[in-house]
Design brief:
Layout lengths: L6 H7 L1 H22 L4 H13 L5 E8 L6 E5 L5 H7 L9 H9 L3 E3 L12 H4 L6 E8 L5 E9 L7 H39 L4 E6 L4 E4 L1 H7 L3 H5 L14 H14 L5 E6 L5 E10 L6 E8 L1 H16 L3 E6 L4 E4 L1 H7 L3 H4 L4 H4 L7 H12 L3 E7 L4 E10 L2 E8 L1 H44 L13
Antiparallel strand pairs: 1-2, 1-5, 3-4, 4-5, 6-7, 6-10, 8-9, 9-10, 11-12, 11-15, 13-14, 14-15
Helix pairs in contact: 1-2, 2-3, 2-7, 3-7
């Protein structure tokens, strides 16, 4: 960076001016050396302000750092300001009337307060400043490389006043120095966090992690990965562990697709493949890969061993296939995760064509009736349900026993078409019987009426009734 010089002052002061200029230049060099060697930020800022204060006997300097919340300021350095004053303003909120520094941080522009005793920006803060004989404060925001405020650099004075040309040049230099020191510190802090996370990931035995090249060379691998593929750390160091060489030929196309995806976006979606273990057996894995920054073209891959999961899935399939009823399993997003042979036969599909598919998209005719409502209620309430539903594609009735879990639904499907047909026949026969019964009952009542009428007519004719027990209606 350009070192500040002040020809006017040097000319007026003679040798003493030249000595002051050299002190400033050497001070700037020392600060930059502290930044370059990674000195603590507090020490760097303190030394920087002391260099600045040395340029003027009546000047007291301060650095306030903006909190990550973007709302409060924290003490950064102030070698000559009273500790009581620093404690009073530490943690104060920025705003449109928050003294010189809080206002500068809020509006993102320099704030020059000539007289703290009368300036309205200091209405809530002058009681902290004036008892310490602080009467002027000029504050300038410090920006990062994205023009975001990260701090404020302030000059305080014992008497009211405004900046001279030399003060202005000092402000330019020391805000620039402050920005360099703060951004270097933040970058190194972020790098330490990133490296710590990376190291914890590499040391983790939960998942396999490798640092490798796209051609298969592996530079670094954690113990979990080496256990997964059966190699030792000595074999890794000797270059004998190569992820491309361990990949069976039928998976090479998927690897090439992942490399192309990595080149295009810097990261791949998760995908499944297999490795050859050192002893020759196959290891099913799930992989996700991301490109690492840097000129070496390296990548980081996270590898999950699916051996146990695949074995459990195979066992579940064997169990489900032995179930006499049709059986399907759905995940929480209504996708098929298992379909046994009998269920596939009922649905008119193959199990493979349904896995991963949404049940309501595949069979919309079941999406608006009682079956879907029962499924949704079972998931919401986590209580089992039973429904009887007609399935239009094959014209059959099914009884569905629905068992929920947080992960999805297990549904046992029993064909009750014959029962439904029998029930329908019984209903039809009962209806027919009722109709005949009604007809028969009506005829009997009419016969009795006719008999009574005949008896009545016979009586009127003076003859005895023909039908016993029948009066005249």
């Amino acid at each position: 960076m350009e070192m500040i010089t002040d020809p006017e002052t040097e000319a007026s002061r003679g040798d003493s001016g030249a000595q002051g200029r050299e002190s400033l230049e050497s001070g700037q060099i020392r600060i930059l050396e502290m930044v370059a060697t990674g000195a603590p930020l507090a020490d760097t800022l303190d030394a920087m302000l002391r260099v600045c204060e040395a340029q003027s006997g009546d000047m007291l300097c301060s650095i306030l750092l903006l909190d990550p919340d973007g709302v409060h300021v924290r003490h950064g350095a102030a070698p000559s300001l009273p500790p009581e004053y620093l404690r009073a303003i530490d943690g104060s909120a920025i705003g449109p009337r928050a003294g010189s520094c809080g206002t500068a941080a809020y509006i993102g522009r320099q704030v020059i307060v000539e007289d703290i005793g009368s300036d309205p920006l200091w209405d809530d803060y002058r009681q902290f400043a004036l008892p310490h004989d602080l009467h002027a404060c000029w504050s300038t925001p410090v920006f990062d490389d994205k023009r975001k405020v990260v701090a404020t650099f302030a000059m305080y004075f014992r008497e009211p006043g405004i900046p001279t040309a030399r003060h202005t040049r000092l402000i330019e230099v020391f805000t620039h120095l402050a920005a360099i020191a703060i951004m270097r510190h933040r970058t190194e802090a972020a790098l330490r966090v990133s490296e710590g996370r990376y190291r914890r990931l590499m040391d983790s035995n939960i998942i396999g992690v490798i640092i490798a090249h796209a051609d298969g060379r592996i530079r670094e691998a954690n113990d979990r990965y080496l256990q997964m593929v059966g190699y030792s750390r000595e074999e890794l160091a000797a270059g004998l562990v190569n992820w491309a060489a361990m990949t069976p030929p039928e998976w090479e196309a998927k690897d090439l697709k992942a490399v192309a995806e990595l080149s295009a976006s810097g990261i791949t979606s998760s995908f499944e493949k297999e490795y050859f273990h050192k002893d020759g057996h196959r290891v099913p894995i799930k992989v996700r890969v991301a490109a690492l920054d840097g000129p070496m073209g390296e990548l980081i891959a996270l590898i999950e061993d699916l051996t146990v999961r695949k074995r459990d899935e195979a066992e579940r399939r064997r169990i489900y296939d032995r179930i006499s009823d049709a059986f399907v399993a759905l995940d929480a997003d209504w996708r098929y995760v298992f379909v046994n042979a009998k269920a596939a036969q009922i649905l008119g599909r193959t199990p493979e064509s349904l896995l991963g598919r949404n049940v309501w998209e595949e069979f919309p005719e079941g999406g608006d009736g009682r079956f879907r409502l029962a499924c949704e209620r079972a998931m919401a309430e986590q209580e089992a349900a039973v429904t009887e539903d007609y399935f239009p594609p094959n014209g059959r009735w099914f009884e569905n026993h629905i068992y929920p879990s947080p992960q999805g639904l297990s549904i046992y499907i029993h064909d009750i078409t014959n029962r439904k047909r029998s029930e329908k026949q019984i209903r039809e026969q009962l209806d027919e019987l009722l109709r005949w019964q009604n007809v028969t009952v009506g005829r009997e009542e009419r016969v009795q009426e006719l008999k009574a009428e005949v008896n009545g007519l016979l009586v009127e004719m003076g003859r005895p009734p023909r039908y016993a027990g029948q009066g005249r209606s």
